[in-house]
Amino acid sequence: MEYELKKSGDFNYIETGGGDNVLMLLHGLFGALSNFEGILNRYSDSYNVVVPILPIYDMPFRKLGLRGLVKHVDSFVDTMGYEKVNVLGNSLGGHITLLYALHRPDKTQSIVLTGSSGLFESAMGSTFPKRGNYEFIKEKTQSTFYDPNVATDELVDEVFEIVNNRNKAIRVIAIAKSAVRNNLGDKLHMIKAPTCLIWGKQDNITPPFVGEKFHELLTNSELHFIDKCGHAPMMEHPEKFNLILDGFLQKVNS
Fold this sequence. Notes:
Rossmann fold
C-alpha cells in the first residue's frame, strides 16, 4: 500500500487519519518508510498512524543532534494539534522517543521501543564508513537482521547511497556521536508512561541485555522477545510484532 508523503511548513510526514488515537512512528538513523510497512498496513484504519520524517539530512548543522531532532518532533506534535501520542521508536527513533517522553510527559500516552539506543549500541563498527565498498555495506546491512534476506537490494542501495554522499555520511556520524553522548541510564526512572519493549533475541546492535536493562530501569514497562530476530522486529516478524503491539495498545488506549 502506498502512503502519501505530506508537507506542511518544515514537516514532511505520513498521516493515515484512521482513528482518534495517534500512533506516531519514529524511524532510525538509516530508517525508511518501508521499515514500518507492516505497522502501517495493520493500523492505518484503526489508528491515526503518523510518521514524521526526521530531518537528519536537512537540519542546519549547528542544530544537528538528538536534542534538535526531539525539538522537531515536539514542534510537529504541537503543530498537528495532537492531544496525546502513542510513540513507537526503532533504534535511534527509540532514543528520540525516550527523550521526547522526558521532555513532554503531558503528551506521551505510551511508549513502544524496539532495538532502541539510549543505553548501549554497537553501530557500524570502527571501520564505518567504507565509501564505495558496496559489499561491505551489504554485509553490514544484512547483519542488522537474523535473516539476511530481509535486507533487500533496495534497502542496501539506500544505505549505500547515504554512506557515499559526503554530506549525509558526516551527518550520520554526528548523530551517532550525539546518541553516545546522550546516555539515559540515570534518567529513565523519571519516565512514568506505560512502555512496551519488543526485542529481537538475536539483535547484535542493541543485544538482548539492553532490552533487559531498559526493562529494569523503566518502572512501568513490559518486555517481549522475538526469536530468530535481529534489530528490526517490525520488519523481520511483522505478524508477531503486531500481535504484541495489539495487546499493549488495547490496554493503554481502552
